[in-house]
Design brief:
Layout (H helix, E strand, L loop, with lengths): L6 E5 L4 H12 L3 E6 L2 H10 L7 E5 L5 H15 L4 E4 L14 H29 L2 E6 L3 H4 L5 H22 L3 E8 L12 H10 L8 H12 L10 E4 L6
Parallel strand pairs: 1-2, 1-4, 2-3, 4-5, 5-6, 6-7
Helix pairs in contact: 1-8, 3-4, 4-6
C-alpha cells in the first residue's frame, strides 16, 4: 500500500473528488481526517468506509475559518499523533461575467479557494516542519492557467494557488516538506452538473481522450503526488484534463 500509516487531512471531502480521495487513500493504507462544511455528508462517507475501522474520522470545518482549521489539525494530531499529507481540495464556483459579478461572488470564491488553502497550510506547516517531512497538494484548475470566460474570480483564485504552490515549494522544501498542485480539467462532480449539455459535448469534442474526467482521475493524481513515488517532485502543477489544453 502506497500510503501505509500516513495521516492525511482532506478538505472538501464530503462529495466529488474529495470523497473519492478519502476512499482511495484509505484503501492505500492512510489514516484520514475528512473535513468539510457538511457534517451530515461527512458522516455518510465515514459510514461507507467504516470497514477501515479507526482509520477515518470526520470533523466539520470551514476552510475560511482559521480557528476551525486549527481545531481540525489539533484533533487529527490528538487522534493519530501526526499529519503527513494535506490535500487542499475544498473549492466553490460562483460564475458571472466581470461586468455582472458581485463583490460577494468575488469574495466568496477567493475566500474559499485561495485564502482557505492558505489557512490550512499555515496551520499544518509548523507540524510538518517539526517532524521534518510532509506533503501539501493544492487543487488548482486549468482555468487558473488559461483563464475561462465567466470565471474571473475562480481563475484568479486558482492562478493564485499555483503561485502559492511554487513559493511554498521553495520555502518548505528545505524543511522536508513537498508542495505541489493538481490542475484538473472538466471533471464529473456536483460542481459541473449545472454545465449545459451543449457546452459539455463541445468540451468532450475538444478533448483528445473524448470524455470528461471522473473524480477518481484526480484522486489518483493526488495519490501519486502524496506517495513516495513522487518523493523528488516539488513545486510542480500536474494537469489532469485528458489533453484538453495541449
Amino acid at each position: 500500500m502506497r500510503l501505509e500509516n500516513k495521516v492525511a487531512i482532506i478538505t472538501g471531502a464530503s462529495s466529488g473528488i474529495g470523497k473519492e480521495t478519502a476512499m482511495l487513500f484509505c484503501q492505500e493504507g492512510a489514516r484520514i481526517t475528512a473535513t468539510s462544511r457538511s457534517a451530515e455528508k461527512l458522516e455518510q462517507i465515514c459510514r461507507e468506509i467504516s470497514g477501515y475501522g479507526e482509520k477515518v474520522i470526520y470533523i466539520k470545518g470551514d476552510v475560511t475559518s482559521r480557528e476551525e482549521m486549527e481545531e481540525v489539525v489539533r484533533k487529527t494530531i490528538d487522534t493519530f499523533g501526526r499529519v503527513d499529507i494535506l490535500i487542499n481540495n475544498a473549492g466553490i464556483t460562483q460564475d458571472a461575467l466581470v461586468t455582472k459579478m458581485t463583490k460577494e461572488q468575488w469574495n466568496n470564491v477567493i475566500n474559499v479557494d485561495l485564502s482557505g488553502a492558505f489557512n490550512c497550510i499555515q496551520v499544518v506547516a509548523p507540524y510538518m516542519i517539526e517532524q521534518g517531512s510532509g506533503v501539501i497538494i493544492n487543487a488548482s484548475s486549468i482555468s487558473g492557467i488559461y483563464g475561462n470566460i465567466g470565471q474571473v474570480n475562480y481563475a484568479s483564485a486558482k492562478a493564485g494557488l499555483i503561485g502559492m504552490t511554487k513559493t511554498l515549494a521553495k520555502e518548505l522544501g528545505k524543511k522536508g516538506v513537498r508542495v505541489n498542485a493538481v490542475a484538473p480539467g472538466f471533471i464529473k462532480t456536483p460542481m459541473t452538473e449545472t454545465v449545459p449539455d451543449k457546452i459539455m459535448n463541445m468540451i468532450i469534442e475538444r478533448t483528445p481522450l473524448r470524455r470528461i474526467g471522473e473524480p477518481g482521475d484526480v484522486a489518483h493524481a493526488y495519490l501519486y503526488l502524496a506517495s513516495d513515488d513522487a518523493k523528488f517532485i516539488n513545486g510542480e502543477v500536474l494537469h489532469v484534463d485528458g489533453g484538453l489544453v495541449l
